Amino acid sequence: MPARERLSAALRWGGALVAAGALAALGLVGGLSPARAAAASGYNQMTGAGQTASAVTVGWDSGLLGPDNQPLADPAPGELNPNGDRSAGTGLYGFEDSDLSGLTVTVSQTQDLGQGGITVSWNWPGHATADSGGIQGNYLQMMECYGSAASGPSPEDCMFGEGTPPAGAPVTVATRDGFLCASGTLSSQNPTGSMGGGAPNQGCDPNEPTSPEDYPCTNGTGSDCLPDDFSIPFVPQNDPADPVYQPELTSAFDQFGTNEVDVATSGADGTGQQQFETLTSAQALGLGCGQEQSDGTPQGCWLVIVPRGHYEPNGFAENIGAGTSAGFGHEIASSPLSAGNWAQRIQVHLDYAPLPTFCQTTGIPDDSYMEGSQLALRAVNSWELELNQQSKCQRLFHMAGTSEQQVTQDFTSSPNQNGLAFTTDPIGSDRLRAGLPLPSLPKIVYAPVAVVAIDFGFHIDERTPGESSGKAQGYLTQPVNLSPQLLARAVTQSYLLDLPDYDPGAVNTKTGKPYDGPSWAQGNPQDISFDPTFQQLNPEVISHGYAELPLAPLETDDDSANNQQVWQWMEGDPATAGWLDGKVKSNVTIDPQYEAEQLGTPPAIDSMPRSYTPCLDLGTASNGLEETRCSTDELPYVTDFNTASADVLAANPLSYNNHWDPFAPNPIQGTGYWDKNPPQLPGQTFEWAIDDTSDTAAYGLVPADLCNDSGTSCVGPTIASVGAAVASAKPDSDGLLEVNPADPGPGAYPLTEVVYAAVDTLKASKQTRQQYEQELNDYADFITFAAGQGQTTGQAAGDLPAGYLPLPASLQAKATAAVAQLRALAGGGSGSTTPSTGSSSSSAKVSAGGPSTGAAGPGGGSGAGGNQATTPTTAVTPSPTSGPSQAPAVGSSGASPTGPVIVPPTASLAAGTTTAPPVGPVRDVLVVVLIVGIAGAGGGILSRRGRLPRRHGRSRP
Fold first, then answer.
1. Are residues 859 and 799 both part of a single domain?
2. Cys-Cys with 262: which of 165, 415, 462, 634 at CB 3.0–4.6 Å?
3. Structural domain range at position 237
4. Which residues partner with 688 through β-bridges?
5. CB–CB of 128/473 below 8 Å?
6. In terms of domains, do 439 and 486 share one?
7. What is the pLDDT of residues 519-559, one digit of tens each?
8. What are the angstrom distances between the C-alpha of 225 and each of 183, 247, 333?
9. 136-150, 219-233, 882-896: which range is least confident on average?
10. Mean pLDDT, residues 493-513
11. Is 149 inside any structural domain?
């Protein structure tokens, strides 16, 4: 096994998420303020599409906004284009008013933000993006900034300058530099040229430098000294004494870390839409968004949008729409940070949620916490933030995302350090899928807490090269139609650009032959956008070889029920199953190495293998490393769905190009590796991932509708379709509802998942009775909140985030029964009340005399992971008053006389101000709080742009 692939064994998905605390470190849920209304009319809970209640619409004419997103009454002194001048069409830049007036911008969410995506849409009548041999004008530029809480940011406060504009646009529009003018006079009638003798159309700025910092050449020497230019530094919020200028900007952020949007284009009608990634201080320390301030509130940030019409900051009117000429010509060329351009900005205040670091961790054992499926992370992070705040950090809940294998290992450990895990399958199912014997499991209670779905998140931003008359298509907003056949081709490296030894135009220096790829692939499409089936299903998507990059979906490197469900959906289509096994031919030939694995034959595998083994070989480098690019270089894995979705939004392909850099760091801690492909360019972006609806919604990605190959039957993840799937789901041997992807039911979304909280009721069997009771009550309290108040949709802490279906009453009843069982085992629990119970098919069964015996485990064996629970072993010292509660039995009819009622939390949690017992070894609290500081653990793979290599192929069990 190559060294870089051996490295992946030490950086597995599960362990990585445990080390980093997963999504909680990203501040992905709302703040600790009271819950707000979930959304404005038309908001889609499952996909996150639409406007939230905190959406803001602002017109350029309204002028600069303040922290309340209302127009400032008195803009900051020195503002070149104050609000009064804009509205009156007068002042220094009055000549631009007719160009910019009428532009309106809507930002979909401005409150309770964390790392995620917000939708920016706009209407600029009569201003289609001018595109003639390259984008010339009539577009928007966007960036995130910190700045004055009262009046807004300055250019020095903004993360901008490391992006790459689309082909044909001057690179200078993506920098922090510009030309100084020979004259300080601003004129649209007689614009001045640059100090260096350049023509007026170069776009010099007579209002720069606005401060000495913008002109780092006062001594006439130094690496930043450009006597005829200005350079606006980025001043990191966390290091204001060390401004960073353009040549060294990668020390603050690079092209893979910036969220700037260099060019956002408008269609022929002047409208457009762009997803913008918001970053917390966990991803962009130099901005500090969301970090705690001295008054205990989170730091807000600003979204700055600079419209670029056809004027340069010296007043020169570019003749956009006309053909370009040599050198500077009919195109906007200046930086948006230039003083004259900055004066035209729109600024919208972004209210960030607190990062979940408010609870101290002193004395909390680090070996006891909740863990499990990444599908639950966003919902659980929201609930735990609210519960921790309610208890004033006297009781701490925290979940870390882990793999199914890790959960099984923990639940079979003695003692189990993690008494509650979130799962979609019975604990131990991973062993059965791998053909391994089921280990002895403790007695487990399962409580449904969330409904979510596996999805495919897309980011497509397209523009036909060379089109004129403003025919820039821009960001695709409608769902992408995807069939089992298309997905099967995409995940089996069947397209030419997904093969590492296919390099059009390159020649093998050893053999003198071109890198044409294998013979079986010669008739296959270059990428999925050229596939006739894809074109038939998605006629609005342009096929133009998006920078000749592989267009396979980003995938996780794990053996999971999530992956298996995706394969089951593909297997459920007979034509696709036959194609995977080589029995059905089509216009796309399957790779024989994948065909040999018979992936269309049940049982479905639970991974996404890289089975194609040939590599592109350039020989031996000077440092002795083989210059080979293999499948895991061409198609690297990502650590989790969150990382995949972030990369898709940032248009980060993760793959490596054909240039070998002998000085680049490689995965085996040495030097010599392939250069990484940069983010895809605006107008040339096609990126997608296998993820889940909670991440698709959080980042604002475009979801997929799952269709047959003809496109006559399609279904997307909606409240109705996901609800229909839950209604048609069947219980497994442990009572957990499972959706059959091959037959989900009429109108049902086939990749729907029900997430359960699995409680190991014997975890505390070595503890004292008091510790045992406390722990079970803690678990019961969490489930109570999750299945009750936690099902209220919204963006604030405690709410159910977008991407989740509120639990149907039947599943709430099952959660009620599970809570009752835990209360019974805990002897009633302090402050708990007697619940009503749900149906007899509940995952947790309770009788008047105590818990009943449940069904067999996932392997069919008695006591192997079934819904059974017993009282603690004799090692527990019973308290004199302890004993099973007299909860009503579940009736055989499944009916509950009073309906599903979720048991309230214990008194200390409900009150929120009651002092709880001290946190520490005396009280073995069930969970640990998030520690953001450990996010760098696990080999540093949990950065915003994580990836993992993996073995080439995987044998079937």
1. yes
2. 165
3. 154-349
4. 458
5. no
6. no
7. 999 999 999 999 999 999 998 888 766 667 899 999 998 99
8. 20, 11, 21
9. 882-896
10. 84
11. no
Answer yes or no: do 491 and 619 share one domain. Answer: yes
Instruction: Decide which of 343 and 932 is more confident.
Output: 343
Q: Which carries the bigger pLDDT value, residue 953 or residue 427?
A: 427
Report strand pairing: 444-462 vs 474-475.
antiparallel
Q: What contacts 24+ positions apart, CB below 8 Å, involve 871-874?
A: 871/825, 872/762, 872/764, 872/765, 872/767, 872/769, 872/772, 873/762, 873/765, 873/766
**DSSP state string for 550-586:** --PPB-B-S--HHHHHHHHHHHTSHHHHHHHTTSS--
Residue 891 pLDDT: 25
Query: Do 343 and 425 share a structural domain?
Result: no
Helices (H), 75-163: 83-88, 97-100
pLDDT on residue 817: 97
pTM confidence score: 0.79
Number of other CB atoms surrounding residue 734 within 10 Å:
26
Picking from 154-158, 475-479, 664-668, which range would have the lowest pLDDT averaged per residue?
Answer: 664-668
Tell me, rounded to whole angstroms, the distance of Cα 626 from its chain centroid: 35
Does residue 639 lie in a domain region? yes
Which residue, among 80, 94, 99, 328, has the nearest Cα to 194 in the 3D structure? 328
Taking CA 933 as the corner, what is the angle to CA 931 and CA 936, rounded to the nearest 5 degrees?
A: 115
Q: Please indicate, yes or no, whether residues 601 and 680 belong to a single structural domain of this protein.
A: yes
Calpha distance 327→310 (Å, rounded): 17
Residue 672 in contact with residue 662, Cβ under 8 Å?
Answer: yes
Tell whether 942 is covered by a domain: no
The pLDDT tens digits for 477-499 are 899 999 999 999 999 999 999 99
Whether residue 905 has a cis bond before it, omega within 30° of 0: no
Is the domain of 708 the same as that of 754?
no
> Is there a domain that residue 217 lies in?
yes
Domain's final residue, options 714, 735, 770: 714
Copy the structure tokens of residue 797.
């802490």
The pLDDT assigned to 932 comes to: 27
The tokens describing 10, both together, are 């030490």
pLDDT in tens, 760-810: 987 655 567 787 788 889 999 999 999 999 999 988 889 999 999 999 999
Domain count within the chain? 3
